[in-house]
From TrEMBL:
Protein name: Dipeptidase
SUPFAM superfamilies linked: Zn-dependent exopeptidases (SSF53187)
Pfam families per the UniProt record, alphabetical: M20_dimer (PF07687), Peptidase_M20 (PF01546)
GO molecular function: metal ion binding; peptidase activity
Keywords: Hydrolase, Metal-binding, Protease
Alphabetical list of InterPro entries matching this protein: Cyt/Met_Dipeptidase, Peptidase_M20, Peptidase_M20_dimer
Coiled-coil annotated residue ranges, if any: none
Top-level taxonomy: Bacteria, Pseudomonadati, Bacteroidota, Bacteroidia, Bacteroidales
An annotated GO BP: proteolysis
Domain Peptidase M20 dimerisation: 197-349
């Protein structure tokens, strides 16, 4: 595969750029034509790489791309999952280059989607191309690329149920996660789930003059801040009643296995430019982001935030709140528990609304599975060291849906790094990881 990469390196980059230049932002209606354009481009790339068929399928939201290569019905089938939608680019002024005009700096590709997930998705297309053209593919391969992962995949589960027979496979192969470091590869054997809500606190029926009414009428922004601060106690424990009922405590043995992952707390703090970490008492930083749930405010607003002063007591205050969940916690149950709790702590001088946005459950896969062992062997060969099993702190809720619908496990061979700053300005993807990812995926096919 190394020689194939070297021979085709420039072509690979130009083909990836053709995807990165399309602003496929799923959360913005104005980019709907771009979603269609990106989906069509993916079908072209799949067919050029050697797929027998590839087509764009409509859904209630953005389209799904499905491609397939039938080698032999007697052979095992790998279903490759990825997503072609990307996050918005705001704040645009913090980007050092155009987010939709890829640029290579310091050995990395800078662009929105360079890592998450166009760059990682593209590795699978090229590894597949190599296996078809050069190495003799010994598997059936199916591809499913969606355009709604960044907004919670509202359409894919329904589409997958309707096309269950078409999606039959033995394993779901995914590259949409990170590894510990370039020197210490890792394979995610589990990911957290997600419950995402928006809350609204309403006080008076209109904005008021803060001089005439301040001190006499409750300020919804102040009230919302008080309510939010009560959601987590001094030990970092979430106070929503029933929140931890289904959380399974890991044994000391399992915690010791996860602790194999190298972690430098001082380097972590330096990278983030913080003096101290903060989280649930009794757990390490890696445990807090892998095996424990959490609650965070993702955005908060209300009143006047424009230039200059406006002495207003606002009528409304809003916040977006996400809860990362561990396996066994049910996203719908947690959303309901949160809504009931948040309404119950509202003082009588405000009204509260809780609107569910999206969510999904977490999952775990056994490290003894043939697929995990094949991935481990492949990554050991590429990186020269055995990968560490880890748990991802992020969420890909639809993978739990696909696991349930299709009855097969996902395998997360992610090649991103924390330095890639996905979802933030100046997202990037190291070229070294981009090419090593292709090698490891091709070797997975050899060993699985």
């Amino acid at each position: 595969m190394k020689q194939y990469i070297e021979k085709n390196k420039e072509r690979f980059l130009q083909e990836l750029y053709s995807l990165l230049r399309i602003p496929s932002i799923s959360s913005m209606e104005e980019h709907k034509p771009d979603m269609e354009k990106c989906a069509r481009r993916l079908t072209e790339l799949l067919l050029e790489a050697g797929a027998d068929t590839a087509a764009v399928y409509p859904t209630e939201g953005h389209p799904v791309v499905f491609g397939e290569k039938k080698t032999d019905p007697a052979l095992s089938t790998v279903l490759v999952y990825g997503h072609y939608d990307v996050q918005p680019v705001d704040p645009i002024e913090l980007w050092k280059s155009d987010p939709f005009e890829p640029e290579i700096r310091d050995g990395a590709i800078y662009a929105r989607g360079a890592n998450d997930d166009k760059g990682q998705l593209f590795m699978h297309i090229k590894a597949f191309e190599y296996m078809v053209r050069e190495s003799g593919l010994k598997h059936n391969v199916k591809f499913i690329f969606e355009g709604e992962e960044e907004i919670g995949s509202p359409s894919l589960a329904v589409w997958a149920k309707d096309h269950k027979d078409m999606l039959k496979a033995d394993i779901i192969l995914v590259s949409d996660t990170t590894m510990i470091s370039e020197k210490v590869p890792s394979i995610n054997c589990g990911m957290r789930g997600l419950s995402y809500v928006e809350v609204k606190v309403t006080g008076p029926n209109k904005d008021l003059h803060s001089g005439h009414y301040g001190g006499a009428v409750a300020n919804p922004v102040n009230v919302l801040c008080d309510m939010i601060s009560s959601l987590i106690d001094k030990d970092g424990h979430i106070t929503v009643k029933g929140f931890y009922d289904d959380v399974v405590e890991l044994s000391a043995e399992d915690r010791a296995k996860l602790a194999r992952a190298p972690f430098d707390l001082e380097e972590y703090k330096s990278f983030l430019d913080i003096k101290e970490v903060k989280g649930e008492k009794g757990y390490t930083t890696l445990e807090r982001t892998g095996i424990r749930p959490c609650l965070d405010v993702n955005g908060i607003w209300g009143g006047y935030t424009g230039e200059g002063a406006k002495t207003v007591l606002p009528s409304e205050a809003h916040a977006k709140i996400s809860m990362r969940l561990v396996p066994n916690q049910d996203s719908e149950i947690i959303t309901h528990l949160f809504a009931e709790h948040f309404k119950s702590i509202a003082p009588p001088y405000v009204k509260v609304e809780v609107t569910p946005c999206h969510g999904g459950n977490g999952f775990l896969i056994p490290i003894s599975s043939p697929a995990y062992q094949a991935a481990s062997k492949a990554m050991t060969e590429v990186y020269g060291t055995e990968p560490v099993p880890s748990r991802g702190g992020g969420s890909i809720p639809v993978l739990a849906d696909l696991q349930r619908i299709l009855g097969i496990d996902p395998l997360l061979m992610g090649f991103g790094l924390e330095r890639d700053t996905i979802h933030s300005p100046n997202e990037s993807y190291l070229l070294s990881q981009f090419f090593k990812g292709m090698e490891a995926i091709a070797l997975f096919y050899r060993y699985y």
